[in-house]
Write a structure and sequence with these properties.
234 residues, 60s Ribosomal Protein L30, Chain: A, 8-stranded mixed sheet, 8 strands, alpha+beta
């Protein structure tokens, strides 16, 4: 499994108001606004190197109000529409940070490989071969069960930082691994509603980094690794 870090920044774009993913019909005002926002971002960052160039995408999200920092406004929901629109196969590292103040921005650039995250830096770690069928409830149920069986030390309330990494086939759209993997992190992030274990408190993730290792030999199987820790001062 490879981990990545930002290298040289190629494009930096100020974002006046980042938009969350919308699942409304195409003609709904929220969906129309989202598509206009995505087109505006794409025109600001293109042209970019095409594969096999390895790129990162990072977003700083200004939550504007302290109450938005840990409640709702999930980072994955900001990243998914942007990366899907620009083309997921272009990126090996996608990340985002929530903060209050400082404005919002989008950065795109080259990536460089880095070492595994160290326990000495406070990172807890979990890894497993999660198999195929990633869009089924059984897949994330098995992943959650494996995570729980590892007896992780649950995080105390408050802001947290998370890295997720996948090894998968180049034929797979790795964006669609993000949500089911985060949905399975209840044993670490907490599960506010015991009746719905796949709705964890992932809105308190204030830094999220997503790493992709492409392996033509992976077939339909997906390997997953997770790292987490309480937020550290900048």
């Amino acid at each position: 499994m490879k981990l990545w870090a930002p290298g040289n920044t190629l494009k930096r774009v100020e974002v006046v108001r980042p938009l969350l993913a919308s699942w409304e019909r195409k003609t709904h005002p929220a969906q129309v606004r989202l598509q206009a926002y995505l087109e505006e971002l794409a025109s600001a960052v293109e042209p970019l190197p095409r594969p096999p160039a390895r790129l990162f995408l990072h977003m700083d999200i200004d939550a504007e109000e302290p109450g938005r920092l840990l409640h709702h406004h999930d980072l994955e929901n900001y990243l998914t529409p942007v990366v899907s629109h620009l083309g997921a196969d272009r990126f090996q590292l996608v990340s985002a940070r929530k903060r209050v103040g400082g404005g919002s921005q989008l950065l795109v650039g080259s990536v460089r490989p880095v070492d595994q995250l160290a326990a000495s830096e406070g990172w807890e770690h979990f890894a497993c071969c999660a198999g195929a069928g990633t869009q089924t409830k059984g897949w994330k149920a098995n992943l959650r069960a494996a995570l729980a069986a590892s007896r992780p030390e649950g995080l105390l309330p408050g802001p947290v930082e998370v890295h997720l990494a996948w090894r998968c086939s180049p034929r797979r759209n790795w964006v669609w691994l993000w949500k089911p993997t985060l949905d399975a992190m209840g044993p670490v992030l907490g599960e506010p509603d015991p009746q719905n274990p796949f709705n964890p408190a992932d809105d308190r993730v204030v830094y999220l980094a997503l790493h992709c290792s492409v392996d033509a030999m992976a077939g339909h199987s997906v390997d997953v690794e997770m790292w987490w820790r309480p937020q550290r001062p900048a």
